[in-house]
Amino acid sequence: MSTIKMSVSLPIKLAFLIVVLAASLAAMLYRVHQATQFAAEDPNGELIDGSVHNDARRILDEVEEVEEKRGPMNVLLFYADDWRHDTLGAAGNPVVKTPVLDALAAEGVRFSENCVTTSICWISRATLYSGQYLARHHFEMLGKGRTITINGTDVAMGFEVPQNETIYSLLKQKAGYTTAHVGKLGLWVGMDYNLNWDFQTDDDGWHWSMIGDRMWHITEKNTADALRFLADRDKSKPFFMNVAYFATHAVDGDKRQYMPQNSSMSMYEDDTIPIPATATEEAWNKMPPFFTEYNEGRARWKWRFDTPEKHQSMMKNYYRMASEVDTSAGIIINQLAEEGQLNNTLIIFTTDNGNFHAEHAYYATYFLLLNVTPPETCSIRVPLIIKDPRMSPKFKGTVNDDFTLNIDLTATILAAAGMEPLPSMMGRDMSVLYRKGGLQAAATAQARRKAIVPTPDKRQYPDPASDGDGKYHSGSEYSWRTEFFYEHPMHSNPDYIPASEALVRKDYKYFYWPNFKYEQLFDMKSDPGEMNDLFNSTNPVHQQKLKDMRKRFVELKMMAHSDFPIVL
Fold this sequence. Notes:
Elements: H1 2-8, H2 12-37, H3 52-70, E1 74-80, H4 99-107, E2 109-111, E3 114-115, H5 121-130, H6 134-137, E4 147-150, E5 153-156, H7 167-174, E6 178-183, E7 199-200, E8 208-211, E9 214-217, H8 218-232, E10 239-244, H9 281-285, H10 296-304, H11 308-338, E11 345-351, E12 384-387, E13 398-400, E14 404-405, H12 407-416, H13 438-450, E15 484-488, E16 500-504, E17 508-513, E18 518-523, H14 540-561
Parallel strand pairs: 1-10, 1-11, 2-13, 3-14, 6-7, 6-10
Antiparallel strand pairs: 2-12, 4-5, 8-9, 11-12, 15-16, 16-17, 17-18
Helix pairs in contact: 1-8, 2-4, 2-11, 3-13, 5-12, 8-11
């Protein structure tokens, strides 16, 4: 344990130097691995053309043969909290320093349009553990066995997914993995609901705490616990570890909100954090009429951002905590490199939800603003970086702008372990977007699924609309989603957190606020700040778009709420 304490207690600047050197070594090893791993691929790195059923089957056979020789991959998931998509140097943020995650993006794929299906901590985490929309896993409120009363009826709000159907249990029981959860669980169900892990810590809600004979910062403890698992695990088995950082979540009950490590306080001292263009009362006044001073997001804005001085102080501490997570990830990755496991490990970085940094004079995680001001910022759009040993070299260092969702994480991780998602799971294996022959093989699998009637043991793909034009991709072309349904449940007081639902596309976005039967329509291309609601527009183009999106919204909502196996 003394070695672990020494590792995580290094000053941040020295730790940065170590992890940057480790990242360089990792990059070199990875390039050597890729050069040998994919020596048989087309010299131009192109997918092979031809009959989708024949060539895709052949390519899939080749990939499976390579993976049999490699053996089961480890899976390392870095899962941060309240961290929006642009809190990364690799995403173009000019202030925040994230050299390790930037290096990870340079060696993998960064998904720039990755979103969550419900933007709040516990629901998003339940979606990760189950691979399901809230509409299916029903975990609306924190706590096991809790109920709320709706129209005089008690409705259970506990996590309803059977224990043996969570990602931890499936990897352990079906694939022989050693499983670990480090950090924030986010379910508040207590140790009586064990998700079938071999190693578990549950640190949540604090930044500093006395543990043993000294004070620990929560990110420091997350790092130490992760290193302890790696050191003590059964090394004859592959592992899945979720390092679920509480950072960059604030401590809501403390007026300081964000409390980084002492060694980080010199970072960003001389920087000026840009204030968003929409951080104005004018923008707040354009919010729906039921958004009042009692709204939770408005209240948190007053805690954190209602003066320029407060905005600078809060954002600098937020960025310091993000840089600490980056350093932690580097220390853990370096440990894998020392063990020789780096090239046999799928590494993922993502977060449970984003948040507002004062846009619209507001702070919240749950409100569905996808784009608010250039560069785009949001609450539902979160970072996603994947570094996969199976990755085709032509995708390394690229940015993918497809709509990927947190329901896809579960399917992707299970597929990396050689497992099919359960019929109850609703996401897609994202590796088809960056593996040799992935799209062709996926087209074959999709064609097989679409040719049969839904049964309890088969998952179905809906026909996804293409860019809202009413046309559909099917047949030999694999249909990755171009839109998605979003949902956030109601709070017991809708004035505090109103329920929200939406159909999200890159060109338009349709809102529905069920508590108030209130609709909105935004043109995301001409109005990325979502300042001009087109719901009452007399323009025939807008009227037709509203009609079309209402119809598609209902279709996708019904699919999300259905009981039969479906992939969204």
